[in-house]
Design brief:
Layout: H1 21-56, E1 66-73, E2 78-80, E3 86-88, E4 96-103, H2 108-122, E5 131-138, H3 145-150, E6 155-158, H4 161-164, E7 180-183, E8 188-192, H5 199-212, H6 224-227
Parallel strand pairs: 4-5, 5-6
Antiparallel strand pairs: 1-8, 2-3, 4-7, 7-8
Amino acid sequence: MAQTPDEPLTLTVHSLPRADVSDTAAMTRSGRWKMLLLLLACAAPVIASYFTYYVIRPEGRRNYGELIDPQLPLPAFIGVDANGRAVPLTQLKDQWLFISVADSACDDACQKHLYVQHQLREGLGKDKDRLDWVWLRTGAPELAEPLKKATASATVLHVDEKLLATWLTPAAGQRLQDHLYVVDPIGNWMMRFPAQADPKQIKRDLDRLLRASAFWDKGGRVGVAAVNGG
């Protein structure tokens, strides 16, 4: 039998399929939509609670405190706690904040505010861990020992009054220390109570805020002991 002569081995190179530009663009758009939907899902509980409080208005009653519009986020400056440690104000986020402002000497009006803050927070019962009692003190950095003991369960930070005034503002004709203020867990200043406010009316507003946000806001900030000087 005649042998077939060896033939050289040949390779066929097939080109890779070219990416379809339209498919790539569609995948990019799909990814963006998924990210947007995820962000909306995370924000939905907060939006719903604000809708409940601001729009539905349970029992048709108006709020006692003045709503701040636009809401103002916690500023980036630093406060100093009772142990001399620097605490960024933004670290106070993730809790409702019930804030008073006063000189470190703490006159009668200041002591009344601190007492009202303490009593109203304690009166919240099981919800009290969702609200932080905060005193932003100005003036001298030193704090008298009796005041340290009286505010042991509060978040007390020494802050620069001029910097503080770039965030919180009083009503016309009032001083910064005349009011009590509320900041939401997102970190936005959203309410200011009138000077010489009625504690019963304040409590009504606090109850409504906590009730409206009960299904998404839980008590106990991560690292809260560090914020409070623990």
